Amino acid sequence: MKKKLLAVLRFSFFLGIGVFFIWLFLRNLTTDQKQEIVKAFKIANYWWIAIAIVLGLLSHWVRAMRWRTLIEPMGYSPGKGNIYMAVLVGYLANLALPRLGEVTRCGILTQYEKIPFNKSFGTVVTERIIDFLTFILLLFFLILTQSGKINYYVQQKIYEPLQAKFNLELSYQSSLLWVMILGIAIVVVLFLVFHKRYQTSKIYLKFKSLLSGFVTGLSSLTKIKKPVKFLIYTFLLWTFYLLMAYVVFFSLPETASLKLDAGLAVLVLGSIGIMIVQGGIGIYPAIVAETLFLYSIPSTTGYAMGWLIWASQNVMILVAGLFSLLLLNVLNNKGNDDIATNAAKNTEQSDAREGVRELERSEK
């Protein structure tokens, strides 16, 4: 009961955060701006969203095949259909509770492919670590290539409002320099004062665990039997993720001219929202709106775009996950029935042959 209660409280907490972000964004909108969002949903070209859904299904197929490359060296060869549907059901489970999907898809392989849970779960951990490393690389790449737009955002959205509120007279560049100097000074002072205590602090232990995860993830690559194939799958996976967001831009006239760099920004920064709040509900559209501000897209259009991307992928997971859950049971039971039928036929044929031989012996 305690575990169930904690699970319900956790789900309610993340759902509450999502609802809070929805309220936080909508409360500052005028009636005209809310109507603009509704209009965006009405005029959207849903053929592009359908293409994004297909790309999403392909990305999950690639993830399943990449997972299969990690399982095969252990001596198991799960069916492509089963492992694909296990991934889809896993994503469906993740909509309910964080990390439930990883446990669920491993349990499915244990049930239908007889792969020990601990072995398949180990490969999922490796897979997640590699994905996190890939995300960090993309984040650094985004910062390096979009530094000008990020500085513009900080100046427009953070510095200028603070300047107007507190009557600051320093320029943006000098203020940023002083903030950096002050930040470094605070870190140095805190280190000198608490350097004996920080090694047992939760923050230090968390950072140490994260660093250990990086090392583990890198070392995991050396254990992969087909590293080139694995890296190709990883590249295709994140390419599909990028295209899933990018093609939805074409569904609205205001965002149709955006380039792949905007798609990358939405992919990376939107992923942070999904990490913070379960499924990204509420926060994902808000992050997309703020991200597209960097590319001169009005916040109302950006917010509508965020909902279009979020809704299309989650509806796809909901439908495909439920369908896979039903299909897994039907197909695997059918397979078991076929085996039983074949065995019965073989037994009947064997009995018939034995009866013929017995008849021949009696005639002789």
Low-confidence stretches: 337-353
Shape: globular
Mean pLDDT: 75
What is the helical fraction, as a range of percent?
Answer: over 70%
Structural class: mainly alpha
Instruction: Compute the separation of the termini in Å.
Output: 74 Å
Over all CA atoms, what is the radius of gyration? Answer: 27 Å
Number of E strands: 0
Series of H and E elements: HHHHHHHHHHHHH
How would you explain this protein's 3D organization?
This protein is an all-alpha fold and 364 residues long. It has a domain at 56-158 and 197-333. It contains 13 helices and no strands. The chain has helices spanning 2-26, 31-43, 46-71, 80-96, 100-113, 117-145, 147-166, 172-194, 202-223, 227-246, 260-276, 283-293, 299-363. Helix 3 runs antiparallel to helix 10, helix 6 (117-145) crosses helix 11 and helix 12 (283-293) packs across helix 13. The longest helix is centred in the C-terminal third of the chain and has 65 residues, at 299-363. The relative contact order is 0.13.
Keywords:
single chain, 364 residues, mainly alpha, 13 helices
Short description:
It is built from 13 helices and no strands.
SSE arrangement:
Elements: H1 2-26, H2 31-43, H3 46-71, H4 80-96, H5 100-113, H6 117-145, H7 147-166, H8 172-194, H9 202-223, H10 227-246, H11 260-276, H12 283-293, H13 299-363
Helix pairs in contact: 2-13, 3-4, 3-10, 3-13, 4-5, 4-13, 5-6, 6-9, 6-11, 10-11, 11-12, 12-13
